[in-house]
Request: fold
Amino acid sequence: AQSVTQLGSHVSVSEGALVLLRCNYSSSVPPYLFWYVQYPNQGLQLLLKYTSAATLVKGINGFEAEFKKSETSFHLTKPSAHMSDAAEYFCAVSVHTGGFKTIFGAGTRLFVKA
Amino acid sequence: DTAVSQTPKYLVTQMGNDKSIKCEQNLGHDTMYWYKQDSKKFLKIMFSYNNKELIINETVPNRFSPKSPDKAHLNLHINSLELGDSAVYFCASSPTTGGVEAFFGQGTRLTVV
Reply:
């Protein structure tokens, strides 16, 4: 069965520091992988996605993620954190079980310190 | 134009009541979903509809009944509300094609008192 594990429910970085949010997946077939961001009291917004093309995927707001099949990982990074990056981040995998459904990780709350 | 819109945004109601949440998407997508986000931010899929047909039902109590009058709408009706139903409910839609992300509504915060 497909699943997603996000390591660390909370991550705190200083403004300007590297952001690294970890995600590992489990899938018996080549996965479709996504990172979403959720700002307080809002819905989810797509940051980026992997769909078996380039393994390094660039998204919005300076974020990128690298698909590593050997490590079953899809970690999200940003070279320099900004205060506005503080939010909840979700890694997700899309699976086909009669229809496509998106399974989410538990989320990682990113705090950015001034 | 809002791609996926839900109403109401907030809903406070007493235990035992029946309530509905409406969802509409103007993206032309074939598939729509309901997700529940609990107080710990965990997102769990509840239902998925494709062209008005139920295709995924994830062990949800039968007090929850989705209804899709057409492929642009997916409403959620909840009977006999319980305290544990308090959560944020998100509607989403996506094309049938795999590998395409789901687009989410802004959520409905349901509080049962």
Summary: The interface with chain A takes residues 4, 31, 33, 40-45, 48, 50, 55-56, 90, 92, 94, 96, 98-99, 101-107 of chain B (CB under 8 Å).
